[in-house]
Design a protein that fits this description.
With 343 residues, the protein is α/β, with parallel strands linked by helices. It contains 11 helices and 12 strands.
Length: 343
């Protein structure tokens, strides 16, 4: 019989922020080449992805998740790359669903493989999925993701997820000026009244290969003005402390949208998220330049108490507030790529 280890006092960083959310990248590979994440010019046929032996095993991921849960983590999200290209992913979901303290187990995906895996993911214990969709016309969508997948393939994945009981699905749309801002309103029209929550995300300077410029950012204010001019909006209070999206509902009752404004309205002050890369590096900020090697700890035979203490020490020293201090100079730092750390 497995002995359940005690839950420790909630970990807090130097700014008093609790450790509540954990994002786990299960692979650095993806079947898309989105311009803001894995531009094909960098991630081409010769790109060296992580060897399988360097990836955390499912058992290692489960052990780390249990340790994070003992320090206060309740929400766990699986990311990539594209997490559904990791083989046997439903088995990992089954393992994580059994971790004491994990109350919300979710996954972010581009959606095209959901028709194949949605039912198995639900049966394994996954609660919800978030699907990335940056436009609802094939020409714009193809430019953004640089793949041959049509919008219909993503919509089919969304339907499959909801039919499996993984809904209502949230839709993430990264908005980049000159690329897809014309789709802001058409995306709102498509998902109004469907029960699906569309979230607009400001184009962020994650990593250093996507050519980010402040001029390319369509601000949350501009997005809200565009949607609100056609469909009046009303603010909605946060569902929980540390929620990244600012929520708005349609005044006519046709659902809600969200905006994630990391660039124009930083929310570092109540950020509760830690990120673990596919090879076991812990990052305490999405815009981090370096991480902490957890794989070496778990493969080095460290005990549970030592592992908990190490994680607590890392979080206790955390003072990240990149979005609050972002400048033209910091934006050019060689930060960890989004495809490696997850969004």
């Amino acid at each position: 019989m497995t002995t359940q280890l005690p839950v420790l006092p909630a970990a807090r960083d130097t700014r008093g922020r609790a450790l509540h959310d954990l994002r786990i990248s299960v692979t650095d590979r993806c079947n898309f080449r989105c311009v803001y994440c894995m531009p094909r010019a960098v991630f081409g046929p010769d790109h060296a992805f992580l060897p399988r032996a360097e990836l955390l095993t499912f058992e290692e991921i489960a052990r780390l998740t249990a340790a994070f849960a003992r320090l206060g983590v309740e929400k766990v999200r699986l990311t990539g790359g594209e997490p559904l290209v990791r083989r046997e992913l439903p088995e990992l979901v089954r393992m994580l669903a059994g971790v004491p303290g994990v109350r919300d187990l979710t996954l972010t995906t581009n959606g095209v493989l959901l028709p194949r895996y949605a039912a198995d993911l639900k049966a394994a214990g996954l609660h919800r999925v978030t699907v990335s969709l940056d436009a609802d016309d094939d020409d714009t969508f193809g430019r953004m993701n640089d793949s041959r997948a049509p919008v219909s393939a993503v919509l089919e994945g969304i339907r499959a997820a909801e039919e499996a009981g993984l809904g209502p699905v949230k839709i993430n749309m990264v908005v980049k000026r000159g690329w897809n801002e014309h789709a802001i309103l058409s995306m709102a029209r498509r998902f109004r009244g469907t029960g699906r929550v569309l979230r607009y995300i400001e184009y962020m300077d994650v990593g250093h290969t996507n050519g980010w410029r402040l001029d390319d950012v369509v601000s949350a204010e501009e997005i809200l003005e565009t949607v609100g001019a056609a469909f009046p909006l009303e603010p909605v209070p946060p569902a929980y402390s540390g929620e990244v999206a600012t929520r708005y509902r349609y005044a006519d009752g046709a659902g809600e949208i969200g905006v994630i404004a990391s660039v124009s309205k930083p929310f570092c002050g109540d950020c509760t998220r830690a990120r673990v890369s596919a090879d076991g590096q812990l990052y305490t900020c999405l815009f981090a330049t370096s991480g902490h090697d957890l794989r070496a700890l778990v493969r080095g035979g460290v005990g549970h108490d030592e592992l908990d203490a190490a994680l607590n020490s890392i979080w206790a020293a955390r003072d990240d507030r990149y979005s609050e201090i972002r400048t033209a100079e910091t934006a050019q730092l060689p930060k960890v790529e989004m495809s490696y750390i997850g969004g």
